[in-house]
Automatic annotation (TrEMBL):
This is IS630 family transposase. Signal peptide: none annotated. Residues 16-152 form the Tc1-like transposase DDE domain. It comes from the Bacteria. It comes from Pseudonocardia alaniniphila.
Length: 198
């Protein structure tokens, strides 16, 4: 936890901090949300007993230096897809060391991912167990769900992906660098687990 907070508070001069995670599954179903409706006539959600279109997964990266969100949507979220995302990030910032904050999901810890990162100046910084709230990208996923998906009923993945793309384009044009994570939170004063008296 302290390592992640230190990267957030004091970005390294030799590179940039990027938070990475998966969002989904993105299935095709009506999503509840708030909308204006005539009194006494609520909008009905259709039944989806079968969902033959399958699910998609969003793999995303949040650059703390600029606040921009980069993503790709894939049918699966294995180590192969994760490594493809890392390669795209490496291409985007070729001369900098990347500090990639991610959780302990097994594809993130795959041997081939680790060896490729070691050879390409990428340091994987893993979150503590049950510490996904420390990943700054989680708040971006909450906003994505609220602004792009709530109150929708997309009938195809292409339609849903277009809604996500439109939101991310708008978001990236109005973004600012990320700073001041959890200021004033009790985690900033946490020192150690309390010990039991003998």
């Amino acid at each position: 936890m302290r390592r992640v907070l230190d990267l957030y508070d004091h970005p390294p001069a030799d590179g940039r901090v990027v938070c990475v995670d998966e969002f989904g599954p993105l299935n095709l179903q009506p999503r509840k949300g708030k909308a204006w409706r005539p009194h006494g006539r609520p909008r009905r959600l259709r039944a989806t007993y079968t969902r033959p279109a399958g699910v998609m997964h969003m793999l995303a990266a949040l650059d703390l230096t600029t606040g921009r969100l980069f993503y790709r949507i894939r049918a699966r979220k294995r180590w192969i897809e994760f490594l493809d995302l890392l390669k795209a990030l490496r291409t985007r910032w070729p001369g900098e060391k990347l500090y990639v904050v991610c959780d302990n999901f097994s594809p993130h810890r795959h041997a081939q991912v680790r060896s490729w990162c070691a050879a390409n100046t990428i340091e994987l910084v893993f979150l503590p167990t049950y510490g996904s709230w420390l990943n700054w990208i989680e708040s971006e996923f909450a906003a994505l769900r609220y602004f792009a998906l709530n109150g929708t009923d997309h009938r195809s993945h292409a339609e849903q992906n277009a809604a996500i793309a439109a939101y991310v384009r708008w978001r990236n044009t109005h973004t600012q660098p990320k700073a001041n994570f959890a200021v004033g939170s009790p985690i900033r004063t946490w020192t150690s687990y309390p010990t039991k008296a003998a």
